[in-house]
Design brief:
Strand order of the largest sheet: 1-6-5-4-3-2
Shape: globular
CATH topology: Alpha-D-Glucose-1,6-Bisphosphate, Chain A, domain 4
Strand content: 35-45%
Order of helices and strands: EHHEEEEEH
CATH class: Alpha Beta
Helix content: 25-40%
Distance between the termini: 44 Å
Number of domains: 1
Oligomer: single chain
CATH architecture: 2-Layer Sandwich
Structural class: alpha+beta
Number of helices: 3
Length: about 130
């Protein structure tokens, strides 16, 4: 795989419940509303479960995801193809944390930051509707 090894970990405050954050991270119908740049190339279930695999396209680059762990307050995705690594999510009342590591040509920290800000905006808009 071409690229550089990159890692980034961010935690932000969000005016949302742990349940709302969980649903936004585990329900593909909600994920599509806040994830930036690209959609799902695979048929998605109602909610992500351990062992499920899907592909997401970011422009011409495909990223394969294997759902490794789904817990009450965490999600771990193993990544391959466009990113060789992993993405972990942790959350609670009013906060979410994302940790991503991998070998890629994509700017991981930039994409992670933009997606976290988009998730926060999505959840805050839902809370005010």
């Amino acid at each position: 795989m071409l690229g550089n090894f990159q890692k980034s970990q961010l935690r932000i405050e969000i005016e949302a419940s742990a349940t709302a954050i969980r649903e936004s991270l585990l329900r593909p119908e909600k994920m599509e509303k806040w994830l930036l740049a690209g959609g799902f190339a695979s048929k998605m279930p109602e909610e992500l479960q351990s062992g499920f695999e899907f592909t997401r396209n970011i422009g011409p680059i495909s990223i394969h995801h294997h759902v490794d762990v789904v817990g009450p307050n965490c999600l771990r995705l193993l990544l391959s193809q466009g990113i060789d690594g992993f993405h972990e999510w942790y959350w609670g009342e009013g906060w979410v944390q994302s940790r991503i590591e991998g070998l890629t040509i994509l700017p991981l920290a930039l994409g992670q930051t933009l997606n976290l800000l988009s998730l926060r905006q999505f959840l805050e808009n839902q809370a005010h509707n």
